[in-house]
Every structure is written in structure tokens, then in C-alpha cells.
Write a structure and sequence with these properties.
Blueprint: E1 2-3, E2 6-7, E3 12-15, E4 23-28, H1 30-33, H2 42-58, E5 65-71, H3 75-84, E6 95-102, E7 107-113, E8 118-119
Parallel strand pairs: 4-5, 5-6
Antiparallel strand pairs: 1-2, 3-4, 6-7, 7-8
Amino acid sequence: MQYRTESVLFSGKISKRREPKNTSIIIEFSEFVGSDAVDLSVEGAYDILATIMTIVAQNEESFRRVEVLFDINDYHDINPFDMLENLKIYRLPTDLVIVLFDPNTGALCDEVDMGKGINIYRK
């Protein structure tokens, strides 16, 4: 996807065969933070989510859902997830879900729908 003068590469795209308009996009939170990040504030983590949603909203293709992945083994991912999981964001153009996962096992540890403020925990 294009954002300003740069292109942004998302981690994945999911589309149901029978429902091609029901498309989800997946991105890793760390892609926007960088490996040398210091501790983020709530506002900083919120700004990163806003940037992700801005990129998605400016794209020609419509997405029903955006999933932002947080690595449970990385402190720089766990801390922002803990801050963001209690926030509710109103009037989103698409569903925004933050997901805490373990990349070693592929397990989803926690999942929060930001627009509804609902924790969707699944093992």
C-alpha cells in the first residue's frame, strides 16, 4: 500500500473465497515501532494505530477488518498492548482488532476488538 511517498508492506491479507469483499489485512505492530524503540506512551501507541488506520482508509481497496499483531515475547509489544486493550475507539471505518500472539507456537493469547471494546479471548 502507498502512504505518502513510501509503500507499506503488510504481513498478510485474508479473503474469503465466497465473500471477496470480506477482506482482512494483518500487520505487525513492531513494523511501525522499530527495533530501537524506547517505551511508548499511550498516546504514542494510539498514534501508531491511527497511522495504520489512515493508511488503510487511503487505500483504494476496502477492508472489513484490520488485525494488528503484538508479539508476546517482545516487551516493546506487550507494554503497548496492555495500554491499548482498555481503550475504545469510536467511529472506525473498519473493524480494528489487536492480537497478542506467540510466534513460536502460533498461539493467539489475547484478542481485543478496539471499536467495540470487547476482549475476544480464544485459545
